[in-house]
Amino acid sequence: MATEITVPALGESVTEGTIGEWLKAPGDAVAADEPIASLETDKVAVDVPSPVAGVMSEHRAEVGDTVEVGAVIAVIEEGATAAASGEEAGRKEQQAEEGRDQREERSEDLVAAAQTLSPAVRRAVLEHGVDPSTIKGTGKDGRLTKEDVIAAAQAKKDSSKDKAPAPTPSATTTTESAPGGERREARNEERVKMTRMRQTIAKRLKGAQDEAALLTTFNDCDMSAVIEARTKYKDVFSKKHDIRLGFMGFFAKAACLALKDVPSVNAYIDGEEIVYHDYVDISVAVSAPNGLVVPVIRDADKKGFARIEKDIADFGARAKEGTLTMQDMAGGTFTISNGGVFGSLMSTPIINPPQSAVLGLHRIEDRPVAINGEVVIRPMMYLALSYDHRLIDGREAVTALKIIKDAIEDPTRMLIDL
Questions:
Q1: Who wins on pLDDT, 86 or 245?
Q2: Would you call 277 a catalytic residue per the annotation?
Q3: What is the pLDDT of residues 347-376, one digit of tens each?
Q4: DSSP character at residue 120
Q5: For the stretch 92-123, what's the b/e string if a residue is b when 16 or more beta carbons lie within 10 angstroms of its beta carbon?
Q6: Catalytic residue of the set 33, 235, 393, 410
């Protein structure tokens, strides 16, 4: 019996996706609940599982096609086997001929080894033709990340170059003429289609610039007290909670104080109405293989430091593995983006629509500052709060950022809700 495979529900307000990769080709055996395709949505890659066991009969969409929720993308012959008939074998051979260049790079052993991996890692394994069993994972619990696969592929490529024979004296290099008759080596360009996620990021950020009245206010923050607290309690904290005590937990809790005192910074505009929230869901900007994603710490105002740090660590690990879900990134009332981990000294972060504000963190560096009439060296960080001036007045933005600064410089405020 033929079973049509349709695009599953992809999350709230998401109506379509793009075929990123077929994990099963016509003629391949398929187990019940086994992924047959990877869909790229605006935010994450989603596996499409087979509801039945059988043999992949046909694809009804190609890689790169945009498909709507509910659309038929494949057909599976339920209960059949991979060698069920000459007709099936013929279809498989035809498919192999059509995709010969691509399929030659993917041996059956490699595909089998990649089945238990996340979509992003599996795609990298198949694309680069490396054996995942030979790679040591750096992700959570030793899992492979996309970066691990790419690094292994590069190492393999470099090793091959080292073993390659030296060019013969008669070898020539393609050159082109430069102004003045100078000869130089030819330069190449590569055009790569933007992923659906990157296209969506571009549209959303440009839309934020076009729609919101963006403004940024700055302050600097003495990190001495937080650094001292981390140094004093990091070992006992890690031992008790099995998680590292980081800076993000402090800033998340400090932001909660500010958002409670200045509700407009935790609100957004919807048409001609302002939507206020009596809760704080903090979106945390995290780097993923395909771009920046913003998973959400739900009810951050009700969580302790340990729970917040565990949520952040989990998001970071799953972002690298490509296993974040649409639900992980749905909602959010305020965003924190830490460019300091990449070395940024100062920036003007852009809001995450429909939110109205984002806090930008930056690198910590020793700087001379005047305290009580004396110049001293302190570990300082620049803070930036970008906001939608249509909703948030300058006084409110400055007040919110000052509350965050004061809480970081005197963490006791976070304990007694000041």
A1: 245
A2: no
A3: 999 999 899 999 999 999 999 999 999 999
A4: H
A5: beebeeeeeeeeeebeeebbebbeebbbbbbb
A6: 393
Taking the C-alpha atoms of residue 228 and residue 362, their distance in angstroms, rounded to an integer, is 19
- Here the tokens at position 230 are 């981390």
- What stretches of 242-366 show up as alpha helix (H) in DSSP? 247-261, 305-321, 326-329
As given in the structure block, the two tokens for residue 379 are: 């570990």
| Cα–Cα distance, 412 to 418 (Å, whole number) | 8
* CA dist list (Å): 390 to 63, 175, 272, 314, 332: 42, 56, 11, 35, 19
Structure tokens at 80: 């059949």
Token pair 């031992």: residue: 239
Q: Cis ω on the peptide bond leading into residue 49 (within 30° of 0)?
A: no
- Angle subtended at Cα 215 by Cα 211 and Cα 219, rounded to the nearest 5 degrees: 150
Say if residue 414's pLDDT is above 90. no
Q: How far lies 344's CA from each of 283, 364, 381, 404, in Å?
A: 20, 9, 10, 19
Distance from first CA to last CA of the chain, Å, rounded? 66
CA distances (Å), 146 to each of 67, 258, 272, 294, 317, in order?
Answer: 26, 37, 44, 19, 11
Query: Domains of the chain by range and CATH?
Result: 2-104 (2.40.50.100), 202-415 (3.30.559.10)
Are the C-beta atoms of residues 318 and 143 closer than 8 Å to each other? no
Instruction: Determine whether 393 is an active site residue.
Output: yes
pLDDT tens digits along 341-354: 889 999 999 999 89
Longest CA–CA span in the chain (Å) reads 90
Find the catalytic residue in 389, 406, 410, 417.
389
